[in-house]
Amino acid sequence: MPSGTQTLEETIPMAAVQDLDRPSAPDAPPSAASSPPLPGPIRPSVHRALGGGVVADVLLWRRRNLAVLTAAGATTVWFLFDRAGYSFLSVIANALLLVVVILFFWAKSALLLNRPLPPLPNLEIPDEVVGQAADGARVWINRALAVGHDIAIRRDRKVFLQVILVLWLISYIGSLFNLLTLVYIGVLLSITFPALYDNYQDHVHEKLGVAHNVVLKQYGNILSRVQAQSTKEKKTE
To answer: What angle do CA 130, 135, 139 make, to 5 degrees?
Structure first.
């Protein structure tokens, strides 16, 4: 049985004494999991680039009902006018005739049966919509006139080649499809490509970078040939 005059060294276990004599280990560096992640590249907002309204929601399939309705309506119009052979004016006239007849008899029956009249909205185009459309059209017209000025007055060969290439592509595509089919394809692409690009931006940027380098290389070759031919013509003169 231990006495009351035991020393402190005898009451402390040997293992604890050895732990006190050991030098304290330095603090471990923080693990990689605890460190904040590095910020990645900021992806451009497709929704903001498309205007950020209802149209952007439809093009990006954030409003699936409207997107499906747009695709179904475009397909129906294309089938009626292109495949079924209906005339545009006859279909529009018959549709308006049906709407007018329905509204007329609805209003008459509402007066006789004490029912509410047809809920028609205010059929007016506001001045703001007309002003925005006019401003947009003015911008595009001024751009086209500026391109014509660069070709005719400044004799810019680069702009001249770009316009020739774009017009040739439009002529070639127009020879393959009629106008209605081309508009239908444009509608389908407009509700397909933005959503795909929004989901696969990284892959699209990689492929577009490779394609852009190839196009720039071919365009530089064509431009150098045109400049070499023009210099030869000047020397011969």
So the answer is: 150
Please, which residues have CB within 8 angstroms of residue 61's CB and are 6 or more apart in sequence? 67, 191, 195
What gap in Å lies between CA 176 and CA 167, rounded to an integer?
15
CA distance 208 to 44: 15
Quote the pTM value. 0.54
- pLDDT of the chain, 237 residues: tens digit per residue: 444 444 444 444 444 444 444 544 444 444 444 455 444 455 667 777 777 778 888 888 888 888 899 999 999 988 988 888 888 888 889 889 998 999 888 888 887 887 787 777 677 788 888 888 898 899 989 988 888 888 888 777 888 888 889 889 988 888 888 888 888 998 899 888 888 888 887 787 788 888 888 888 888 888 888 887 777 766 676
Q: How far is CA 94 from CA 88, 104, 209, in A?
A: 10, 15, 51
What residue spans of 79-126 are helical by DSSP H?
88-113
Distance, CA of 98 to CA of 102 (rounded, Å): 6
